[in-house]
Amino acid sequence: MWRYLAQRSLRAAATVVGVVTLVFLLVRMVPGDPVDAILGDQASPEERAALRQALHLDAPLPVQYAHFVGDVLDGSLGHSFRTPARTVGSLIAEVLPATVALSLAALALAFGIALPLGVIAAARRGTGMDALCSTVAVLGLAIPNIWLGPLLILAFAVELRWLPLPGDDAGGAVGLLLPAVTLGTALAAILTRQTRASMLEVYDEQYVMAARARGQGEPVVAVKHVLRNALLPVLTIGAAQLGALLSGAVVTEKVFERAGLGQLFLDAFFARDMPVVQGCVLVVAVTYVALNIAVDLLYVVVDPRVRLA
Question: Across-strand partners of 79?
Fold first, then answer.
């Protein structure tokens, strides 16, 4: 176990370093000058040169990368170009809880939709109910967030006025509902199909036939015996997708005008605030890799039959 954990951690660290290095290079390939974004076109050459030197933009790329690594190691993640008095770490710490709350709400909603639909589809395989649940899952995958979000706003916030409009903080937890639906719909579709597929495999096991022979009803067989033993891959995919939800919140937070990691990333990207962009990507990459390691280790906890190679 410990040997596997050490090997997995080394691979995870290499992955994070690779992702961050790639982002470090790609950000600097985007057209535009951060000095222009900060000072505008009216700044004198002396002011521009002084700012460029202060931001280490006049240094070679290896030197800039060394500064970035140092900022990562001390936990500050550097200083924002737009607000030099603030560290990137403090900016991310302010908005990360909102993004985590949105991602967890989307994950909970996805499981709340997927498990019932998957159970019904598997228990009624080959019937019209199975086809209906599968169609709903396909529609969930086919609808893009950038289209679903405005549609939900128009229907439930503008026309029906059941939910608060984007940017209305007075909505509280209620205001989290539409963004969570927008973000979690595609994941719900994926989990529905996975639940159905996993349950169909378990239905052919002998202990399921034995449960039926003992006279247990079909709902009890489906939930107690089939779903319970088919849940491991579903939980694995759901937990692994939490990292993807963090990065997928970019579009959703923009549509619903929510302050979060995605909104911070977009604002920094368009303002050429490279330290903030790098910090956001680093946080998402580390979170995604850490969740994948946790899911691998969860196999042993949930199912003792699993052995890590």
Answer: 87
Residues 6+ apart with CB under 8 A from 43: 35, 51
Largest CA distance in the chain: 87
The residue type found at 278 is: Q
d(CA 284, CA 95): 13
pTM: 0.79
Which residue, among 101, 147, 76, has the nearest Cα to 260 in the 3D structure? 101
d(CA 139, CA 127): 19
- pLDDT tens digit sequence for 227-257: 777 777 787 788 777 777 877 777 788 888 8
d(CA 136, CA 278): 38
Asked if residue 196 has pLDDT above 80, the reply is yes
pLDDT tens sequence across 276-300:
888 888 888 888 888 777 777 776 6
Structure tokens at 84: 């030099």
Beta bridge partners of 91: none
For residue 190, the model assigns a pLDDT of 87
Q: Is 48 exposed, middle or buried (0-12, 13-18, 19+ CB in 10 A)?
A: middle
DSSP 233-301: HHHHHHHHHHHHHHHHHHHHHHHTT--SHHHHHHHHHHTT-HHHHHHHHHHHHHHHHHHHHHHHHHHHH
